[in-house]
Amino acid sequence: MKMAKSALAVFTTAAVLGVSSFAQAGATLDAVQKKGFVQCGISDGLPGFSYADDKGNYMGLDVDVCRAVAAALFGDATKVKYSPLTAKERFTALQSGEVDVLSRNTTWTSSRDAGLGLNFAGVNYYDGQGFLVNKKLGVTTAKDLDGATVCIQAGTTTELNLSDYFRANNLKFTPITYDTSDESAKSLESGRCDVLTSDQSQLYAQRIKLGAPDEYVVLPEVISKEPLGPVVRQGDDEWFNIVRWSLFAMVNAEELGITSSNVEEKSKSTGNPDVARLLGSEGQYGNDLKLPPDWAVQIVKQVGNYGESFDRNVGAGSELKIERGLNALWNNGGLQYAPPVR
Amino acid sequence: MQTHTFKPDMPPPNQSIGAVAWLRGNLFSGWFNSLLTLFALYLVWLIVPPLISWAFINADWVGTTRADCTSEGACWVFIQQRFGQFMYGFYPSELRWRVDLTVILAIVGAVPLFIDAMPRKARYGIGFLVVYPLLAYWLLHGGFLGLETVETSQWGGLTLTLVIAAVGIAGALPLGIMLALGRRSEMPAIRVLCVTFIEFWRGVPLITVLFMSSVMLPLFLPEGMNFDKLVRALIGVILFQSAYVAEVVRGGLQAIPKGQYEAASAMGLGYWRMMGLVILPQALKLVIPGIVNTFIALFKDTSLVIIIGLFDLLNSIKQATTDPAWLGMATEGYVFAALVFWIFCFGMSRYSMHLERKLDTGHKR
């Protein structure tokens, strides 16, 4: 027993040392620059966020964060190697240094931020639990759902959020739980349940799986907060800043009207000092981040601004057709807001 | 002289020959069996026609996008469009000939082993087993002698399934035999070691082993030391399966009469020659069904690597169904996966039956 204990102690120490030895400022940036690519942890398959096309190229909103970091660092968005990770192994992969940044639809919570030794670099998608219903029901708001049969995908918080919401609004419901999203979609289609609940980003993907997607509608209510964003190891502020500002650059670019098609032109001549500072034609703001002066130009040119990335992957330009909603810019009624470059 | 001529045989009564008799004998021999037969026929009628109409009659076979799937049934366009990815994973398409060549070499190289008249077969076999893995590694992974490196993270699809299964089988069989011999050894140290090893690996689920290798191991390794994920999984699979092979082989060893051991000793054979020339050839022959059973299970278990994010055949298919362009094609994908797995497992089981018949000498009843 004593031996087992001391062995355990050795292992724990090794684990702690192993983790903490990464937490030196600058270590990640140096390592990334030395190897010449960003190792990025992504999902093993989530429609619109990270998936592979038939040529084997990874795409998606989460993948674009990785590409933006690579574009900022190397001026080449293709200098990324992807590690598809399951939900269970994602944090270990980041802690152990297997990946440099984790961009895998990960919800920002206090326990993950503080308890796991991680830092969330921002929010690239404000998600939340929503409802998908058949238009025939004539329901326009979740408040009309009294007495409904609700299909739930087995998940830890989905069911809890649902019962909280219905209790708070004094409504009754009957839950049916399914393991996979395919099963719950089939069940909604066959009419076994009136409404399907899941994170909104998933609901739009679910809708495509139905025989007649146009007959179903996602209700406007969002009953939980699921801010998703890229994650880095705690303690390496230099790297944290790079990831964070790569994301901010995309949001700022959209706000300033810089797109992948006009970025070249605007970087050469612009009357707007905000644009000039972001694109590096005025001041040395890239230097502070230890990035090349044209870092933001490269991001917008190769990946696009936040709006372009959103449209292409999950928005109007994609199959999913998710509305901007919470993810619209702050001056457009949404929550996407980035501090200024100056 | 009168000779007795036999009358020609009477034909059997109508009710004991022909299709009707067979039906009466096998399907309607009593009221209970008749009921069961009718029930089975009802089930077949219930299941088969819709299945055929889904898979063949109402299915869409040609096209390039989801929009080409207009009919009610299966959309095989999805499988056709993603076929390359299901076979090779993310292996760069211009380098896929290397995978093809690896498979062809395996088949061509193994052919002489199946020709009975081939001289020096054992020597060739050993040479093949030594040379081929190096060649396969060079072809698949590359990185030296002029071939571009293809990292294991890009391997996938059926290629990866076969790599895991082949390496698992090739590694687990010799290790399992050694463990089985060790477990029956008269040297206590070796015996205890082997028993501990076997019981440990048999006592944990494969998922746990894979999970540990992927999630826990990296935390214990020093910084900068990152084992390849595939290598970690392969080591896990080999160690796990070798314990099972060891127990199967031990069953064979126990079935060999003591007289065989004594006779071999009396001939003046040492331990290794006794085992190699007398005991193991007989024991292994006895346990072919068991070993093949283990290997079929291993082949199917390879799909568990899904939980550590390796893209084997099943995970490649699962991943392709998350492409927004092909959402909702999960059924077609899984049916395809089942078909591929069935072909390989059925092939293995047929081969083992052939092997049993060929080696079935001296035990015929």
Question: How is the topology of this model organized?
Answer:
The complex is a heterodimer of chains A (342) and B (365).
Chain A: H1 2-20, H2 27-35, E1 38-43, E2 51-52, E3 58-59, H3 61-74, E4 80-85, H4 90-95, E5 101-107, H5 110-115, E6 118-120, E7 125-127, E8 129-134, E9 148-153, H6 158-168, E10 173-178, H7 181-190, E11 195-199, H8 200-209, E12 216-218, E13 226-233, H9 237-255, H10 263-268, H11 273-278, H12 285-288, H13 295-302, H14 306-313
Parallel strand pairs in A: 1-4, 1-5, 9-10, 9-11
Antiparallel strand pairs in A: 2-3, 5-13, 6-13, 7-13, 8-11, 8-12
Helix pairs in contact in A: 3-9, 3-13, 9-13
Chain B: H1 18-26, H2 31-57, H3 77-88, H4 96-114, H5 121-141, H6 157-183, H7 188-203, H8 206-220, H9 229-255, H10 258-266, H11 271-286, H12 288-301, H13 313-320, H14 330-359
Helix pairs in contact in B: 3-6, 3-13, 4-5, 6-7, 6-9, 6-13, 7-9, 8-9, 9-11, 9-12, 10-11, 12-14, 13-14
Membrane topology (chain B): Multi-pass membrane protein
Organism (chain B): marine sediment metagenome
Keywords (chain B): Cell membrane, Membrane, Transmembrane, Transmembrane helix, Transport
Provide the descriptors you would attach to this structure in a database record.
heterodimer, A: 342 residues, alpha/beta, D-Maltodextrin-Binding Protein, domain 2, 13 strands, B: 365 residues, mainly alpha, 68% helix
Word description of this protein:
The complex is a heterodimer of chains A (342) and B (365). Chain A contains 14 helices and 13 strands. Chain A is an alpha/beta fold and 342 residues long. In chain A, helix 3 crosses helix 9, helix 3 packs antiparallel against helix 13 and helix 9 packs across helix 13. The N terminus of chain A is likely disordered. Chain B has 365 residues and is mainly alpha-helical. Chain B is built from 14 helices and no strands. In chain B, helix 3 crosses helix 13, helix 4 packs antiparallel against helix 5 and helix 7 packs across helix 9. The two termini of chain B are 49 Å apart. The chains are: A alpha/beta (342), B mainly alpha (365). The interface between A and B is large, with 41 and 40 residues.
